[in-house]
Amino acid sequence: MGSNMAEAHPVGFQWVMEAKARGARVFHIDPRFTRTSAVADQHVALRAGSDIAFLGGVINYILSSQLEFREYVEAYTNASFLVDESFVDAEDLDGLFSGYDPHTATYDPSSWSYESMAAGEIAADPSLEHPRCVFQILKRHFARYTPEMVERVCGVPHHLFAEVCQAWTQNSGRERTTALVYSVGWTQHTLGAQYIRAGAIIQLLLGNIGRPGGGIYALRGHASIQGSTDVPTLFNLLPGYLPMPDVSHEDLASYIKQAGGSQHKGFWRNADTYAVSLLKEYWGEKATADNDFCFDYLPRINGDHGTYRTAMDMVDGKVFGFLLLGQNPAVGSAHGRLQRLGMAELDWLVVRDLAMIESASFWKDAPEIETGEIDTATCRTEVFFMPAASHVEKAGTFTQTQRML
Predict the structure, then answer these.
(1) Averaged pLDDT for residues 8-20
(2) Chosen CATH of 5-82+145-219 out of 3.90.1150.10, 3.30.460.10, 3.30.70.790, 3.40.228.10
(3) Quick one: pLDDT band at residue 400, thresholds 50, 70, 90?
C-alpha cells in the first residue's frame, strides 16, 4: 500500500517476484493500476486517501473474528496494559477523544496515560478482558470499521476486502508471516503517520513484527536514507533509535526511565542494556558503573533542532553558518522557498556534493531572483562548494531496505 514498488524500487521488488514464484501471494492496494498492480496476484483499487478506513476494517476483522496471535500479543505488545479511567474514546464524545480544548484546537493527553500501581509498574490484565485494557479499547474503537463502511468509504467491494483479510490472517501466526510494504505514498501523505500506525497495529495483532518474513518495510529513495535514522544523523536520536538526552536528564537513571524500563512492553524494556552497550562502545573501558558509563559526556538537546526549525531560524537571522551534505533542501525539502530564503540570510554555506546542486547555486538562479526576494548583488551568503566522492568511490557502510548494515 502506498507504493509502486515495481517501478520505484525495482531492485527490492525482484525479491517480491522471487517470493511469488515460490507461492507467495502479492496484493497491491492502490488507487492506480501500475506495473506493480500488473504483476500482483490481486490489485485492490481504493479511493485516494481512504487507506485509514481500509486498514481499520482489517483491524476490526481480526479482532471481531478472534484471529489475533494471542500469545504474541500478550507477550510483546501493550495490549494488556490498563488505561487511566478518565480516558474517554471518540464514540462517546462525538468523534473527539478526552482532553480536547476547542479554544486551542489541541489535546491534553494526560487522560490517555496508563494506570500505574504503587510500585510504579503499569496495571495490566493478562487475560485481555478488562474493559480498560488497550486490547478492549482497540476492539471498541475499531468496531465502527465494518466491511460495509469500508465499501462505502473506500469503494472496495465486500468480497474483495474479505479476500485481503482472509489472506492476511491465514498467512500470519505461529507458522507463517506476512510482510507489509509501503513507500512515500504513505510517508508523505497528510495522514501518513496514522496510516503507518494502523499498519503497525495489524502487524502486531498478527505477530508479524520482529519475525523473519514479517515486518513493515518502509521503502526509501536510496539506501542511506534509512541509514540516517539507524546511524543516526537526526538531531533527536542516538544509534539504535535511542532518544537523544535532553536538559532534563540529570543522570543515566533519569534518561532510562523515559527511554524504556517498566513503562514499555516488548524489547524497549531493555533500554538500559541498549544505552549502556552504546556508551561502552563509545568510551570503552573508561565507561563504568561508577561514572554512570560516561553518560555525562553526551550532549543534551533543549528544544527543536530539526531542519524546518533551523530554516526558520535562518530567516530570523539566528543561524550564521550551515554545513550541507547528503541533501538538497533548495528543491528537496518541503517549502523550498523557505529553505532558499533561509540560506540567503547566512554568512556562509558549505555544500559537499557530487554535482553542482540547486542548494549551491540558489544565490544566482533561484526562483526568488525573478521575484526580487533574493538579489544576487546583495545576497551576503558566501558559498563554499566541495566536490565529494560517491559511495562507490570510498570505503564505508550503508543500510539497505531490509535494515541490514
Answers:
(1) 92
(2) 3.40.228.10
(3) low
